[in-house]
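User: I'll paste a sequence; please echo it back and then give the predicted structure.

Assistant: Echoing your sequence first, then the prediction.
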Amino acid sequence: MLRLYGIPNCDTIRKTKKLLDRHGIPFQFIDVRATPLSPGKLKEISDRLGLMKLINTRGRTYRDLGIKEKSLSDDQLLDILQQNQAMIKRPLLENNNNYFIGYDEQGLLDFARLV
C-alpha cells in the first residue's frame, strides 16, 4: 500500500491527500511527529534519494537550527534529521520499497499507480 509520510498541518500534505483521494488512490498517512521513521529507514531513504534532496532547506526547522551556516557531515545531518523529522521535505511517498519526494502532481500520480 502507498504510504504518505509528513505532518498533518502541512499545506502540501493536505494538497497531496486531496489529490490522491480525488483520483481514488488508497494510501496510509504516517505522521512523522507521532510515529517517527526509524534511523535505518531514514538512512535507506537518504541512500536512495540523496540526503540533501530529503531535507527541506526552505522550512522553518532548517532555518531555526542554522544548518546552512554549519559545516556538518552527512552522518551529523542524518542525526539532526532523525531528531527533527518535520524537516523532511514533503510529501514523501513510499510504494513497493520505492520512494518519491516533492510535490509534482503528475509525478505523484504516476508513482502512486505503480502498485
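The chain has a mean pLDDT of 92. Residues 11-22 form the longest helix (12 residues).
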